[in-house]
Automatic annotation (TrEMBL):
Keywords: Cytoplasm, Transferase. Residues 4-144 form the Aspartate/ornithine carbamoyltransferase carbamoyl-P binding domain. One of its GO terms (molecular function) is ornithine carbamoyltransferase activity. HAMAP family: OTCase. Residues 152-300 form the Aspartate/ornithine carbamoyltransferase Asp/Orn-binding domain. This is Ornithine carbamoyltransferase. It comes from Tianweitania aestuarii. PANTHER family: ORNITHINE CARBAMOYLTRANSFERASE, MITOCHONDRIAL, ORNITHINE TRANSCARBAMYLASE, MITOCHONDRIAL.
Length: 313
C-alpha cells in the first residue's frame, strides 16, 4: 500500500482534496456538537520545526490529541539533524517510532527527501516554497462564509511567496480565478505558474493592486518578508502600493472577504482597519487550521502502515 503523504496540493487529486475538505467541515460540525471520537488512539505524530510557529504547532498538537493520538515536538537544531545526520537517515529512524511526521522546514527538497525515505506519512507544515495546510484552512473558511469557491475571484497582493504558491495550485484544483499583483522581482516561482496553467488554473498577473482587487470575492495578502528571507528583504517601500487598506478593499465586491495566514505586520501589508474590519476572517482561518489538519491527519493515517523496507514479510 502506498504511503499517503500530504506534501503539496499539486501532488493530490482534486477528488482527494475535496474529500479532505468535506471531512474537515464535518469534523468541525461534530466537534461543535460535542462529539469526541478518538480514531487515532495509539498513534503518534512527530513534529519537526526548523522555523518558528504558533498556529501550525498548536493546531497540529491539539488536533492530534483531539483525535486520540499523541505528539512529539522536535526542533531541527536540537536533533542530530542539526549536527549533520541526514534527512534520509532521520526519516528511516522516525518511521520506526511514529505513525506520521509533520515538518516545517526551509528548503522544499528537505521535505521531498523526507517523503522519499519515510515509511510513514509526511505532512508539509510549510517550506520556503509552499504552505498547503494553510490554503486548505483558507478555502474551508471561504466555503463557510460564502459557499463554493468555484469561479470566484481571489486577489493576492504583496510578495510572491510560499502561501501564494499553494494558492496558485489550489486555483487549479478547486477551480477559482486568481489575480496576482506583486512588485517586480517578487514574482512567484515559475514552476507554480506553469503547473497551474497546465492544469486548468485561471491566473492573471495584473500591473497594479487596484486592478487585481477590482470585483474580487476574496482579497489575500501575507508578510512582505517571509521567515528565512530576511537578508533578501528590500526596502518595504516597494511593497507599499500593495498594502491592503480600506481604499483598496473598497474596490473589491461589497461582500468580499479579507484573508491573511497570520502573523500579520499591521501597518505594513495590511492596516488595522482592514484586519479588524468587517471583511476580515483571519481568526476563522486560524481556527480552521485545526479542523482542516485533523482531516489531513485522518486521511494520511487511514492507510495502513506499510511493512518497513528491510523488514521480513
Ligand atoms: N499561518 C501559520 O502557519 O502560522 P504559524 O507560523 O504561527 O504556524
Ligand atoms: N510566508 C510566511 C508565512 C508564515 C506562516 C513565511 O513563510 O514566513
Amino acid at each position: 500500500m502506498t504511503v499517503r503523504h500530504f506534501t503539496d496540493l499539486s501532488s493530490m487529486t482534486s477528488q482527494q482534496l475535496r474529500a479532505i475538505m468535506d471531512d474537515a467541515h464535518a469534523r468541525k460540525t461534530r466537534l461543535k456538537a460535542g462529539e469526541r471520537s478518538k480514531p487515532l488512539e495509539g498513534k503518534a505524530l512527530a513534529m519537526i520545526f526548523d522555523k518558528p510557529s504558533t498556529r501550525t504547532r498548536v493546531s497540529f498538537d491539539v488536533g492530534m490529541r483531539q483525535l486520540g493520538g499523541e505528539t512529539i515536538m522536535l526542533t531541527g537544531t536540537e536533533m542530530q539533524l542539526g549536527r549533520s545526520e541526514t534527512i534520509a537517515d532521520t526519516a528511516k529512524v522516525l518511521s520506526r517510532y511514529v505513525d506520521a511526521i509533520m515538518i516545517r522546514t526551509t528548503d522544499h527538497a528537505r521535505l521531498i527527501e523526507l517523503t522519499e525515505n519515510a515509511s510513514v506519512p509526511v505532512i508539509n507544515g510549510l517550506t520556503d516554497e509552499t504552505h498547503p495546510c494553510q490554503i486548505m484552512a483558507d478555502l474551508m473558511t471561504f466555503e463557510e462564509h460564502r459557499g463554493s469557491v468555484k469561479d470566484k475571484l481571489f486577489a493576492w497582493m504583496g510578495d510572491g511567496n510560499n502561501v501564494l504558491h499553494s494558492l496558485m495550485e489550489a486555483s487549479a484544483q478547486f477551480d477559482f480565478r486568481l489575480n496576482i499583483a506583486v512588485p517586480e522581482g517578487s514574482e512567484p516561482v515559475a514552476r507554480f505558474t506553469d503547473w497551474s496553467n497546465n492544469n486548468g488554473g485561471r491566473i492573471t498577473f495584473t500591473r497594479t493592486a487596484e486592478e487585481a482587487v477590482d470585483g474580487a470575492d476574496c482579497v489575500v495578502t501575507d508578510t512582505w518578508v517571509s521567515m528565512g528571507f530576511e537578508d533578501k528583504a528590500r526596502g518595504h517601500n516597494v511593497f507599499l502600493p500593495y498594502q491592503v487598506n480600506e481604499k483598496l478593499m473598497a474596490r473589491a465586491r461589497p461582500e468580499a472577504l479579507f484573508m491573511h495566514c497570520l502573523p500579520a505586520h499591521r501597518g505594513e501589508e495590511v492596516t488595522d482597519e482592514v484586519i479588524d474590519g468587517p471583511h476580515s476572517v483571519v481568526f476563522d482561518e486560524a481556527e480552521n487550521r485545526l479542523h482542516a489538519q485533523k482531516a489531513v491527519l485522518a486521511w494520511c493515517l487511514s492507510a495502513e502502515k506499510p511493512a518497513l523496507r528491510n523488514e521480513a514479510t
